[in-house]
Every structure is written in structure tokens, then in C-alpha cells.
Amino acid sequence: MTGGGSAIALGVTIDPTQVEGLDDVFTEAKHRQFDVTTRWHGATFDDPHAPALAFLRVKLPERGIEFDVAFVVDELRRSITAASITKTVLLLEPALALAVRTGDPIEQFEQHRWFGLEFDDVEPLVRLLEQRFDADDAEPAAEFVALDESNREQVVNGFLKGARGPTQYGVRPSIGSATIYIADEADDPELAALLASDEAPDVQGRWASMPAEAHSVVRFELLARELTRSWIIMDPDQRVVRAAASGPHEVAITQQRIDEDDQRLQRPALIIPMPAGSDAMKPLMR
């Protein structure tokens, strides 16, 4: 989910009052289930500058409701990729979409209205992503570094080069999947500008690990067109390791400490969806 939601689902803000009968469905969804059918289809255009669109057709036969939700693929590539893996979309009322950005997600989902959609056929999404993005533009693979006596010093120095330790890191409560946060209070104007940007930046994340008998090290890399940043975590907390290795998750980058009592993510922050568990972190699981 983009903008502070969970990476286990593609979240979209929708005003249910704009579709006849949908407002009642949102209200009743907290207490009952509905028979829903969904179907994805895509649209591309000959004009290379025209956006590729993905449409989710939603039908609620018992209420006679049918509508399409449109997504701009170029702007939501990572979230749509996550949706193709998790097969879930969350429709959020506007008040909830705003509240989860700064409040505790579990509390906000309990207090506001939302409607979850599940689907099995993701082939249209996969085809659209393959058509829109070249293989060279694929996400970087996770990295696992093995050590032996012949390469130890060289590999360790290379692994640590250009990285810094975060001010704070941990896992905060989230709906469905985990959110790993990395807080870095270092004076970094370029990172601050990226976090404060009004436009959704084109960013990717990558985990790397270097297990050892005495101490293990992990590195998280933020890869953007504007800049690259890396953070090193020595002997990472097992909650972080499990969250990164076990399945879809997201990494939140912020320049402000997080209150460990309420775990609220302060803005500005950059949310990086990680659609799958990291193979690089699995050797560190205990």
C-alpha cells in the first residue's frame, strides 16, 4: 500500500458516496461478508508518453453494484507488483487513508471504514507489468555475502563502504505485513529533500547480509534516481530479520526518531514496499 499502508495489499482511496449503494456496503463490511467478484484488465496506448492503466472491475451482485477502480501503472508500479503477489486490494475511505499516515494502523482500521477485495487471476496484471517495464528495469536482487579466510578483509570493507548506522530501527505494528523503520538523524539535505517531495519518487530497496559466527551484519540500500543511501545494522533484532525474511513487508525511512511507546511514524517519511521476503535475511533467522 502506498503512502504509509501495508505492502501486503494495494490500497486505494475511494469515496463510497460516489457509487450508489457502496456507502452502505462500507458501513456493513465491519459486521458481515459480501459476495464479490473481481476482474483485472489493462489498457496501453500507442503513444509512449500516455500512461498505462490497470482497471479492477468490482461486482456485488446482491446489491446490484458494479464499478471500476483505475490505477496508473507507472505511478504505482511497486504497489501493483505487491498486489499481484498478495492478491489483495483494500478500498479505503478518505478519512482512513489520511489517518494511517500518522496514527497507529490497527487503531485507525478499527475506527474507520474500509472494504477488502481478494482475487485469484493476476495474469492481466503480470502481463501489463511485463509489457510496460523492460527486464533491465527489474528490481535488484537481494545479496548474500559469504566469507572465508581468503576474502574476509576485502569483502567486509566493501560491504561497509559508504554505509552508516541508523539512529534507530525496529518493527512497528501494521495491518497484514510488517513495517520496518529506519530512522537516520544525520544531516543529509539530499535525503531530506527526497523524503519531503510531493511527488511519489521512483525508489527501490534491497537487503544484503553478511552472517558470521561472532557478529552478523545487514545492510539496507535505498536506490533512487536522485541518490543512493545505505544503512548498516550490526547483530539485527530477530523481529527485524523475521519481518524482512518471511514475506511481503515495507521499509520506512525517516529522519526523526520514533516514539517506541506509540510507534507512530512521523512525517516526512518514505515508504518502500518490498513485495517478497528477502533471501538475504533468511540465513540470519533463528
Commentary on this structure:
The protein is 23% helix and 30% strand. It has 8 helices and 15 strands. It has helices at residues 22-28, 77-86, 94-99, 105-111, 123-132, 152-160, 189-196, 238-246; strands spanning 10-13, 37-43, 53-60, 65-72, 88-92, 114-118, 143-144, 163-164, 168-172, 178-183, 203-210, 217-224, 228-234, 249-254, 269-274. Helix 2 runs antiparallel to helix 5 (123-132). The chain is globular. Residues 1-8 and 135-142 have low confidence and may be disordered.
Can you tag this structure with a few keywords?
disordered N terminus, alpha/beta, four-stranded mixed sheet, five-stranded mixed sheet, 286 residues
Brief overview:
With 286 residues, the chain is α/β, with parallel strands linked by helices. 23% of the residues lie in helices and 30% in strands. It has 2 domains: 10-136, no CATH class; 139-284, no CATH class.
Broad structural category:
alpha/beta
| Nearest-integer average pLDDT | 79
> How is the largest sheet built, in terms of strand order?
7-11-12-13-8
Proportion of strand residues: 25-35%
Q: Count helical runs.
A: 8
Query: How many runs of DSSP E, i.e. beta strands?
Result: 15
Overall spatial form: globular
Helix content: 10-25%
Number of domains as seen in the coordinates: 2
* Largest β-sheet summary: 5 strands, mixed
Order of helices and strands: EHEEEHEHHEHEHEEEHEEEHEE
Rg measurement, Å: 20 Å
Poorly predicted runs are 1-8, 135-142
Distance between the termini: 29 Å
List the helices and strands and how they pair.
Layout: E1 10-13, H1 22-28, E2 37-43, E3 53-60, E4 65-72, H2 77-86, E5 88-92, H3 94-99, H4 105-111, E6 114-118, H5 123-132, E7 143-144, H6 152-160, E8 163-164, E9 168-172, E10 178-183, H7 189-196, E11 203-210, E12 217-224, E13 228-234, H8 238-246, E14 249-254, E15 269-274
